[in-house]
Amino acid sequence: MVVAKNHDPYELMEVSGKSQAQKHIVQKGETLEQIAKEYHTSTKSLKKWNKLNNDVIVSGQSLIVFFH
């Protein structure tokens, strides 16, 4: 398990058309699985959207989460 630091997590961004993305800054102790659950998505989707090859995330890392 990889853990990360505190964060100020949420910033909305317009993506295209009806889709939006939210930036999530990884905080200390978070895992990719926890973040996926928070946004009602899968770790597979998070990895695809953020071009991650594995489940390793670090404190302060910015992740994009897409939604409608």
Automatic annotation (TrEMBL):
Pfam families: LysM. InterPro entries: LysM, LysM_dom_sf. Residues 22-65 form the LysM domain. Gene3D superfamilies: LysM domain. SUPFAM superfamilies: LysM domain (SSF54106). This is LysM domain-containing protein. It comes from Heyndrickxia ginsengihumi.
